[in-house]
Amino acid sequence: MQTDSTQHKTASNWMEIVSKYNFSNPLMSWWQIINSVIPYILLWVAMVWSLKVSYFLTLLLSVFAAGFMVRIFIIFHDCGHGSFFKSKLLSRIVGIVAGLLTFTPYHKWTHEHHEHHATVGNLDKRGVGDVKTLTIEEFLNLSPWGKFSYRFYRHPLFLFGIAPFLVFIIQNRLPRRTMTKKQHLYLHLTNLTLVVLIGLVMWAIGWEAFLMIQLPVIYIASVHGVWLFYVQHQYENVMWTRAKEWNYKEIALGGSSYFKLPKVLQWFTGNIGFHHIHHLSPRIPNYKLPICYEENKVFQEVKPVTFFSSLRSLKLRLWDEKQNKLVGFSALRYYSR
Q: In the chain, where are the structural domains located?
């Protein structure tokens, strides 16, 4: 977690720092589309062929296809922020297509994600686009069934084994009560388009082949995607505050992690591990995040979360307002209703 001096420096100079990176490079954007979408399609075709050879080969190829699906999702994500192309129309078109490839409705997800950016780390505005996290007091005030449900929800086997698949296959298909009529329409059009596209593919290769290929790909991709999102805001020494103390610029660096990954995984995840910079300025396209990090020491002062240190975050389930940190259920022994 950064020091007070670092926070002050960031708060006073962040616009000047990020202004050099707040614009896209059309060549780099199109090249990222080419080296993400084309390999994904080729792998999909190869998996159709592999079904005639061995399903183990299909599953092996699905791991790589899932990696490219995650990368396509980052393109989708950047289009929603308007950072991938200068043109809003082009961003919307590419975002919608990338959303279809990743089973994610563009307008619904983008709206919810903007809410997430506007409220991250705010204990008084939790809920939209977040991993549900209760304070200790809130948990203790739950009914026995409520406590069981929350424990079940926060268990790693559910959170990373079942929930990701449910989010991408079911939750992404369903409207929210707070959505506008226009957002409802776009969601239904997305669902209808997916039904038509899936129907055409099933007609071409058979429904069994489609499920044997697509299900492992989307499962592997969704699990890794949810894990990335989890580590970005659920880690040791993360900063969360109440609304009256909440400051966007400070929370961007204190409430979002720098998830340091090996270069190959950094590439497949579209540099989203530089999440502290992304939250400070969502207008920076993903391919400029590493450059921004390397050229500005203020971002390097944030302690990185590594793969092994991220595993410790699995035990963090509740926010302790007395200590201002995430804790595990074991901390409950020190509290009473």
A: 4-334
